[in-house]
User: Fold SPFH/Band 7/PHB domain protein from Corynebacterium poyangense.
Amino acid sequence: MDIFGLSFILVALVFIVLLVLKSIALIPQGEAAIIERLGRYTRTVSGGITLLVPFIDRVRAKVDTRERVVSFPPQAVITQDNLTVAIDIVVTFQINDAARAIYGVDNYIVGVEQISVATLRDVVGGMTLEETLTSREVINRRLRGELDAATGKWGLRISRVELKAIDPPPSIQQSMEMQMKADREKRAMILTAEGRRESDIKTAEGEKQARILSAEGEKHAAILAAEAERQAMILRAEGQRASRYLEAQGEARAIQKVNAAIKSSQLTPEVLAFQYLDKLPKLADGNASTMWMIPSQFGDSLEQFAKAFAKKDEDGIFRYEPSRVDQETKDLAEEGDIDEWFRANTNPEIAKAVAAANAVAQKPVDPEPESPVIPKAAPSSPVEEFTPAFDNQEFSQLGQPGFTDSDDQHA
Assistant:
């Protein structure tokens, strides 16, 4: 084989390889390819091997059909109050029709950017800076609506539009920071004042409750003290009354004893006269006694007394005969049982009344009484409330002749 034949074989092999390469196109998953035949669109293929007519069909362009996120550089936008702010935009979109994206617009990325900037300036131009900073959701929604309507004929679907950053001028930002600082200090001062007011209110309420409880305690203490004083006065009055009746009974018993002793001793006028003469020196012995006069008719007086109460004897002498003493007078003149007079035991009724008063005084005061405690009025007779040492029947028996030592002991 000569050189000319070998060259022809090599050229034929190269042509066959080139023909095979031109007949097969490999399209990856997630991409779409635009196929043209003799410069005219024929079909869109994606995800696999595609057969082409060599030197007649060709792949015009490959388009990424996945959802894409594009961030555009900051755009200077003037607000309604003539302040320039820089706004960054992030657009998320997806190509639904690859043929429209290639034949409908020269560069769909630039088209999306320019429409986004124009729509953003239109929306933000009708808002103040404060509204722009606080109305991100409204701006995002309007931008997405405008872009979706404008890019629908390009085969694009706008899924999201977000404002990534809104940067006001440095001077405005500094003023805003100062304003925010002032607002925070204002809120802090308001909260501090509110807390102080609540604290003062709670403190005042606590002091009020404390004063109310203190007043209630003092009131109850005063009531108990008055009640105790009233009971003490009643007990003292009972004791004084009993003491007076006992003194009167003692004097009556003493007089009865003296009278019975005199009757039992059967004294004669001679003894009385002797006693009278015996006491005269003692009467004259006083510091204020300087002179005593004895009546001259004293003997005649004794004689008349003897004649009145004595009997004349056979020898003509008047002799006094004492009257007969009955047994009751003798028994009364004798010394009785006086052991009970010196008894120092406390009356059980008085001890019971004192114990009841102590129980009332030690009773705890209620923390919050529903109604003021009003002491009951004293009964018409203290004897009804406290058991006295003597009742009326026993008092009526004091000083009577039939009153015996047993009754005195009971009193």
